[in-house]
Write a structure and sequence with these properties.
The chain has about 160 residues and is mainly α. Helix content is about 70%, strand content about 0%.
Length: about 160
Amino acid sequence: MFIITEWESNKLPLISLNFYRGWFCIISASMTFLIYDIIFRYLSVQFNFLLLWLITFYDVWNFDDIESDQTYDRAFLGLGDFTVFNFMLLLILPPSSSTITKIYITIGHIIVVQIAQELTDELSSIYNQSAQPGVPLPVIFVSLYFILLNIFIEY
């Protein structure tokens, strides 16, 4: 916590803050890949998406923590959200596709998640809510993207 307050007061250089945030994103992505590769790769895609939807509902229902004193003045994404986004990407990538196809699917995934995040921000401003969980709309949009992708690839 001390280091974060030092960055906020501009006593430490901003480049170290970016390195700090990037390091946590890399750790989150690496842990997600390892967990997916060890456990979830061998489960059906439908079960994995069911698990994502359960995580989404948990995120929505536990977002308003009554026991917490913190007030949130804006929507935010945590490392758990990045883990879910990485897990969604690993779910929709077909394992036997070419590298260029995987790159296109990844770019589509990034676009879909960004659209869902922007829609989450717009809905929070329309309904005057200062903060919303960042996972539900991206999971819905990526699920639709996955269905459309499978229809497009198979036919």
